[in-house]
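Summary for the funding panel

The consortium committed to producing paired sequence-structure records for every protein in the target list. Below we show the first two records in order, beginning with the earlier of the two.
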Amino acid sequence: MTARFILPHFAPVFAALKPFIARAGLTPYNVARKRGELKYILLTESQSDGGMMLRFVLRSETKLAQLRKALPWLQEQLPQLKVITVNIQPVHMAIMEGETEIYLTEQQALAERFNDVPLWIRPQSFFQTNPAVASQLYATARDWVRQLPVKHMWDLFCGVGGFGLHCATPDMQLTGIEIASEAIACAKQSAAELGLTRLQFQALDSTQFATAQGEVPELVLVNPPRRGIGKPLCDYLSTMAPRFIIYSSCNAQTMAKDIRELPGYRIERVQLFDMFPHTAHYEVMTLLVKQ
């Protein structure tokens, strides 16, 4: 049996989407027959102002004109929809989204706020799935960093900058690296709002960026995908030996594997976060200190 956990105020959204799908001619994609247009509907809600981002993942642009024509009706029914896009995913594979994103609204980012830190969410930018727990995660990282003698840090695999924006102080130099340009645009917008002029965010591969540097800051914070940071970055960090490493991961197994590749460090602190309730998955954050 599959358990479903849906916020009650999402019900009117789903109720309006059902007739809209018919109006827009969005025939659901049939996996067996490889026919149809609508693959997924992705809905994101801001916890700070209740605004929503709605993304239609389609097989092609065939129904785009019809969708645009029907859109005013949906916006009238659901004024909380601030960002609406169409994502084109033409491949017959279990992939959530494709490379092409078509904006149907003038607003392109959803405003969020954790612990008085402004954050922005764009399509194709990674954002933690559980706002309440993510807020605790970022606040904990900030507390840990503030207790360390750190004036310069890297935030690798930084996404929209949640960790770095929480940890940074006006006199701290921070470089955030994330391969997704959409996420970096969000991070830069947040840094500008906070007036943090010593923060630099770049859309680059985190491992390639780090291993090209001839020196490291006192602290390197990493929040990689489930696969972990990998041996090349582990080898680089082991050789360059930053004084502190904070490692946050949704996969404790790959984190443990990576930490074994860092023999010169001891585990100083560990904390688990129930980021994915009712599942066996969780987020874990570890502070490593150079021995």
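The next record, for a separate protein in the list, is shown here:
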Amino acid sequence: MASSICIVGGTGALGFGLALRLGLAGVPVVIGSRDAGRAEEAAARAAEQVAQAQFTGRENAQAVQGAEIVILSVPFRSQSETLTNLRQALTPEHLLVDATVPLAAAVSGKATRTLGVWQGSAAQQADEMAPEGVRVVSAFHTVSAALLSDLEHQLDEDVLICGDRRADKQKLAEVVDLIPGLRAVDCGPL
């Protein structure tokens, strides 16, 4: 199991839901945001809901320091900028989990269609942009943010994991399996 997990974009719906569930499973979570104040507020809200857990809020580049696993949970339109801003912070010791879904949003903010990604997928784009040596896997695309955040709801979901190294997928699968009702499924390479 990872000693701590950072969720970049942990103030958003999916990231916050993952933080709650990981905290409930006993995993220390660092919530990252572009704004340290928002990250600290999210960590405080998470601690109110899961009192026995350890949550910390930090600015993204500081948040990844000390984490073994970094989950990138940002809107697709922010993926490139976020990874560019993290280039100095991410190291070969990090396993980067891309949870980005390439969706176009309408004026109302609702997803309207998927976007084509030149590299093939959002995870492949993240892999191309990540600093050399940073391993990338893809996961959490099929898990409902609303259900993750509803701690009264018993989960019953598969987490599809793609990655080019079996050891990296296994490391993430061990974390996924800590969350009751989630099942890790190895779905092959990026």
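Regarding this second record: Residues 5-155 form a domain with the Rossmann fold fold (CATH 3.40.50.720). The longest strand covers residues 157-163.
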